[in-house]
Task: structure prediction
Amino acid sequence: MNIFNRRNALVGYIALKALKRKRKKQQRNVLKIAAFVVLGIVSVGILAALVAVAMRRNGKADTQEPESDIELDGTELDAAMPAPVDSRVAE
Result:
């Protein structure tokens, strides 16, 4: 009895092709998962950077008061304005 015949060769060939196809599919799935993980990490990094920039901008706006040359007591205003010309001194 001979086990090496056409039918057994065909069954073996089809089985090997199926295993090869299954292995390629698993490899594609691994690559796909790795690509999505990397994409997710990059997206989280970009989102974290945007949140940090937004918080920094909000922090600056809240902590700083508007700059003003005029103070409430008027001392800054008097120093910045020229002294009035007295008509009696000019004569």
Summary: The mean pLDDT is 78.
